[in-house]
Amino acid sequence: MAELIFLVGFPRSGTTFLATSLSRFEGVCSTPETHFYTDILESCFFPRRKIPVERISNEFSDRLRLRDLEIDFKLVGNNSNSTSKTNRVSFFRNVVDIYAKRNSAEIVVEKTPDHFRMIDQIRADFPESPIIVIVRNPVNVLLSLKKVPWATKSDIFYLLEWGYLHEKLCKSDKNVVLVHYEDLVEDWDRTLRKIDVKFLTGRKITDTPLGEAVPEWELQWKSNALGNTIVDKAKGSSEATPKLTVWVEKVVGDQMQKLGYNAQSTAFRYKLLVRAFGIYLWLRKLRKLMTYGLGLTSILPSERKLTKTINQQKI
User: Fold this and answer.
1) Structural contact between residues 213 and 20, judged by C-beta atoms closer than 8 angstroms
2) Other Cβ atoms within 10 Å of 142 Cβ, number
3) Which pTM was predicted?
4) pLDDT confidence of residue 298
5) Given Cys at both, which of 9, 97, 194, 311 links 134, Cβ 3.0 to 4.6 Å?
């Protein structure tokens, strides 16, 4: 059975760069984004109780994200301890084991930025699996989001979400490992070796990563994260203006300070907005549960949007 490490972070915080870096450790491979705990789990209301393996395999084998793993989902049922029924933990564990075997790896790094919102659920399902969280200065996160085709929400929306999720992270007592994107860029080798995850201790760093952290259709906005060229590029470039920096600090300055960034305190009105945003996320999750979890439809809007993005690239 392969060891499993979860890697999460806010979008455009360097999860792909860190995933490909971790897969340079001997015997470690990284996955493309599975979105198992967000799009897939929420759309199917996949419970902890056991349900027929065949139903699960048929439901998930055509999902765009899991299709990127390039594994035969018929093997998932054959690889299960119970050939007739399984639950979400066993199913995902079997998927990971098959992916590890295909890549001749002992450790799998599951990288999905959106799983940042699901840390509590992941910890409940996989209590022994380390969770690595990569954080990045939100000013640069915003600038990076402007360069990708799928980031269609406003700057204030992304900032409030960044503030709420990182505030929740700072208050959490869950055992997570924090990695700063800036440290990774500044001293790649030293930062990697300092990551305190028992599975990585003593492993050599090789020249060639295992696994395919980036499927072909995502290369348009993730190709820079596949090599060390990102280090030199990131060191020498900064598009942040003083006006943008001041505004970001007014919105999420408190959270930045807690994470070790030099920032001014959050303005009072934005403190209230960050808290209100948490309520909004909770209501949105409840709506998903009622709409998709009860079987009214099995395809989330995010998956429709993803399909549209892929089809546009093919034109």
Assistant:
1) yes
2) 20
3) 0.82
4) 43
5) 9
